[in-house]
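<goal> How does this chain fold?
<sample>
Here is the protein in question

***
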Amino acid sequence: MNLVSKHRSGPEALVLGFIGAGRLARAMALALQQAGLPVARVGSRSAEGARATAAMLQDCLPCDPQDVADHCDLVFITTPDAAIARVAESLSWHTGQGVVHCSGATPVAVLQPAAAAGALIGGFHPMQAFGADPQAAVRSLPGCTVAIEAAEPLLDIRLHELAQRLGCAGLTLPPGVRARYHASGGYASQHVHVLLAEAVRLWQSWGATEQQALDALLPLLRGTLASLARSGVADGMPGPISRGDAGTVRQHRQALQAVDPDMRDLYDRLCVRGVALARTTGRLDAAQARLLEQTLDAPPDQNE
């Protein structure tokens, strides 16, 4: 079996396998199966994990990782990032098969041992967060972007075809930018949680609960997301910075300083970036931007 066989074409001809049986593997394997692209084998260092994931799929064999490498045309490595290089080094690969990891940040070069054996190596990373519920994770895939990196044109084509079959948008990622690409996802996902945690702390400072805060803030966040989708990052930005309201910013700084100076410092740093963003739209003139910058640069006690 060979990814580059002259006698077979299209993703349906590929024998697919996974090494790693966690949340990402379960979501991708189920989604591929629903798209008419069944997964033949799932391997893991944990035999129990391999059995549990294979049991969710039709005609899928749980096995050890080497068995996946021996029998599959296209192998997805969905282990934790720190284990990817070890998997590539410890297994025997064969000429013409595809070996692809699903990490956002790990360089494709860690798969070089597979390439040295003649395999075609690449990256296939869905820009999405996957929870513990596999079916919910499958529902979250359509519409998301999959970052694809593959130097071999045929592997690149096959990976884009798979992304399309999953209902995703394939994005060709140039070599050397995976960490930057993955960090960008942190701003849109992980860091949102941090910012909401800060907002919840403010609500709790007057005795409100986290649930009360989220009940109020999540509709605001949903409206913000709708504005982003409609108007873009800069034009859709709301709030006092976008309208040059230095007086409100001054009040915010005073209130935050009283709760936690570090919280006020984070607010200042975000606002400085916000001023620069608002300037790109022409919504702030030079005088408004200068007044905001002076307000943010002043010691908090001078804002009183």
Remarks:
- The beta strands are 16-19, 39-43, 61-63, 74-77, 98-101, 120-126, 145-150, 169-172.
- The two ends are 74 Å apart (CA to CA).
- Residues 178 and 304 are 45 Å apart (CA to CA).
